[in-house]
Structure formats: structure tokens, C-alpha cells
Specification:
Strand order of the largest sheet: 1-2
Order of helices and strands: HHEEHHHEHHHHHHHHEEHHE
Helix content: 55-70%
CATH class: Mainly Alpha
Shape: globular
Distance between the termini: 32 Å
CATH topology: Na+/H+ antiporter like fold
Number of strands: 6
Number of helices: 15
Strand content: 5-15%
Number of domains: 1
Largest sheet: 2 strands, antiparallel
């Protein structure tokens, strides 16, 4: 296991160097590398094998770090015109996806559960332009600032909503007809998650206002982030929501040497990003029928159209020209957050209640075996590929749209 993990990290380093040389996103090369090494065999057995416990642990650790890093970047004193427009874009794009993209997915691919279609639509509302675009000349361009703030605002939301929807699936297979019966435990999950994040945030950051250690403070931040998730889940709350609240607390609390602490969390996230993207290559849908690919491209095109309409409505009275609006619309890269969610879903276990002779029992089944779930996961990975490729193309021709050179 340790050897395999070391090889993956070495591949990540190598792909990073190659991506800089070829000027293509490292995410794309990491996913392709994962698909390649998955098929390496020795005496008929695969060389790279990881236990389910390891895969789930890595994905949850990555999830916690991503949610914490994204939510900690949202600070109240940064609220300005850019953030207002970014927030409007996030809300509008999210609403359009939930209304139209979910319905299109449900009927186009015959997904058995509307909740799964809504889950997919919610995840696709997220953007991660920072993983594809880094400014080459300046950091003050309004378009890139808008994309940056949009990714900061939507990352915690698009990670949180899918797990709320999964909770709804677990409450009852026919939850809509029994909504009132399960409203109380559902709200309890939300309140418990928020309460856990607030409780640990108050305790930890009050201490960190006065204390800082180069060795202990970063470890305390990492440990408490994980503890927040674990504690919330253990007492029946939503762990992702708890970490989101904890991250917002960190972003808006005066803490000693906050910049150094953010650098540490970013370094951990980078390492996990390499591992997750390589492992995503293990579940890369390679042998899909052409009809599925064509329908997925059609659905991706619909998402781009919905995003463009949302941008048009948000910037209707703004001075952005058509080229700039097109550039924003086409830059909707799905990064590490989507990769982690897809990876977690591929290893997720649903605990569905069933009635046997009038007694309610829990039937645990892998989500991947639930009708339509495999389709949703495949679509997530394909949309990641499409969006990364599209954003890379936009980066190459950025000067034609925003008169600014950017590189991957």
C-alpha cells in the first residue's frame, strides 16, 4: 500500500512537470495516468490495489480539507461588487441547473430517481476555474476576479447539497410522500451540523487567537477540521455542513499567523488532489457506448447554455461585453471537489429503510448498485473531462475574449 501511494505521488510530480511543459491541465494527465496504471498487471493480477477502507478514508480527508479551505476563503470584509455578482451568478446557475438540468438528466438517461438527478445538477453548478487558470500578467482583471469569487462561494454549497440529498434518500425510499414524518430528523441533522461547527469554532479559535506554534498550530487546525466532521456525523449531524461552518469561523476570526496556517492547509490539499485525481482514473468510464457519450455531450451543451443565460441575466445592466460574458460562461471547470464527490459516491453505502412484516429494517447497499447511480457517477467524470478541456481551450484563446493572457 505504501509503495503504491509513493508511486502515485511520484506520478503526480511527474505529471505536474509535464503539464507545465505542454501547457495542459495536470488534472487531465493525472486522470489518464490513473486509468493506465489501473490496467497494469503482474501474473494476471492488478499491481495497484487499494482497500475500500483506504479509499474511503482518503476521499473523506480530501473532502474535509476542500470544504474547509473553500469556506475559510469566504470572509465578510471581502464582500464587494465582485462578490455580489459572483453570489448572484452562483444562485442563478444553481437554480437553473436544479430546474432544467436535473429534468433533462432524468429523462435523457432514464435515471430511476429524481433525487439522483438533482444531486448531479447540484454538483454541476460548481466551478473551479482556479484549478485551470492562473493569471500570467496581473491579478486585477475583473473577469478573473469574478471567476475566482464564484468558485470560492459555490464550492461549499455544491459539496454540501449532494450529501443532504443522500440523507433524504436514506430517510425513506419514498421520502416525498412521507416528508412531514421525516422533516424533524432531517432538520435535526442540519441544526446538529451547524451547532457542532459553531461549538468547536468558538473553543478552538479563541485559543488560537493567543497561541501559535509552527509545529502545533497547523496540526491543531487539521485535527480539529477532521474532529468537526467526525463529531457531527457521530451525533447524527451533517459533517460537511459542520466543517463548512467551522471554515467560515476560521475565515472571519482573528487568528495568529492565519496566512501561514492557510498555506499549510493548501499544501495538504495539493497532496490529496494528486491522490484523488489518480484514483479517479481508476473509475474512469472508458468502455461507454457511443450513444451515451453523444447524449452526455448534448447534456453538457445544455449546461453551458443554462450558464450563459444565467450570466446574461446577472450582468444584464452591467458593462461586460458579449465576449467577456461568453468567456465567463465557458469557464466552468469541474475540479477537485467534483472528483472527490464522484469518488465518494462510487464507494458510498446507502442505508435504506424497508418494512418486513410491519417491522422497519435497514437495508445497506452500495450506492453504485442503486438504479441510475452508476450513470450519474459516469456523467460527473465525463463532465469533468469536458469542462477541463473546454477551459483549457479558453485559456489558450483568452486574449481574444478578455485581452489577458492566462496559462494553465
Amino acid at each position: 500500500m505504501l509503495t503504491n501511494l509513493t508511486v502515485i505521488l511520484f506520478i503526480g510530480l511527474l505529471m505536474g512537470l509535464i503539464s507545465k511543459k505542454l501547457k495542459i491541465p495536470a488534472m487531465l494527465l493525472l486522470m489518464i495516468s490513473g486509468a493506465v496504471i489501473k490496467n497494469i498487471t503482474l501474473n494476471g493480477s492488478p499491481v495497484f490495489v487499494f482497500s475500500d477502507e483506504f479509499l474511503i478514508s482518503v476521499s473523506i480527508l480530501a473532502l474535509v480539507m476542500i470544504v474547509f479551505e473553500g469556506s475559510s476563503n469566504f470572509t465578510l470584509h471581502d464582500l464587494d461588487t465582485y462578490t455580489t455578482y459572483a453570489l448572484k451568478t452562483v444562485v442563478m446557475f444553481f437554480v437553473f441547473n436544479m430546474l432544467f438540468l436535473s429534468i433533462a438528466t432524468y429523462y435523457l438517461f432514464g435515471v430511476s430517481s429524481m433525487i439522483l438527478s438533482l444531486l448531479f445538477a447540484a454538483v454541476m453548478a460548481g466551478t473551479d476555474p482556479g484549478s485551470v487558470l492562473s493569471l500570467f500578467q496581473t491579478k486585477s482583471n475583473k473577469i478573473t476576479e469574478l471567476l475566482k469569487f464564484e468558485s470560492i462561494v459555490n464550492t461549499p454549497v455544491m459539496v454540501l447539497i449532494p450529501f443532504i440529498l443522500l440523507d433524504l434518500m436514506e430517510l425513506d425510499a419514498n421520502v416525498m410522500s412521507n416528508f412531514l414524518e421525516y422533516l424533524t430528523p432531517f432538520m435535526q441533522q442540519i441544526i446538529t451540523g451547524i451547532g457542532t461547527g459553531v461549538f468547536l469554532g468558538i473553543i478552538v479559535f479563541r485559543f488560537m487567537k493567543k497561541f501559535y506554534s509552527d509545529k502545533l498550530s497547523p496540526l491543531m487546525l487539521l485535527t480539529t477540521s477532521l474532529l468537526t466532521y467526525i463529531m457531527a456525523e457521530s451525533i447524527g449531524g451533517n459533517g460537511v455542513l459542520a466543517v463548512t461552518v467551522f471554515g467560515v469561523f476560521f475565515g472571519n476570526t482573528r487568528v495568529k499567523k492565519k496566512i501561514e496556517l492557510k498555506g499549510f492547509s493548501n499544501s495538504i490539499s495539493n497532496i490529496l488532489e494528486i491522490v484523488v485525481f489518480v484514483l479517479i482514473g481508476f473509475v474512469l468510464p472508458i468502455h461507454l457506448p457511443i450513444s451515451f457519450i453523444l447524449k452526455s455531450i448534448l447534456l453538457f451543451g445544455l449546461m453551458i447554455i443554462l450558464r450563459f443565460i444565467a450570466i446574461e441575466l446577472v450582468y444584464y445592466n452591467d458593462h461586460l461585453n458579449l465576449k467577456e460574458r461568453i468567456f465567463i460562461s465557458l469557464n466552468c471547470a469541474k475540479g477537485i471537489a467534483v472528483a472527490v464527490i464522484a469518488f465518494i459516491l462510487s464507494n458510498y453505502v446507502l442505508n435504506l429503510p424497508i418494512l418486513v412484516d410491519g417491522v422497519k429494517l435497514i437495508n445497506s447497499i452500495p450506492l453504485i448498485q442503486y438504479p441510475g447511480a452508476k450513470t450519474i457517477i459516469d456523467l460527473m467524470i465525463l463532465f469533468m473531462l469536458y469542462s477541463i478541456i473546454l477551459s483549457s481551450i479558453m485559456a489558450r484563446f483568452s486574449q481574444k475574449f478578455i485581452r489577458l493572457k492566462v496559462e494553465q
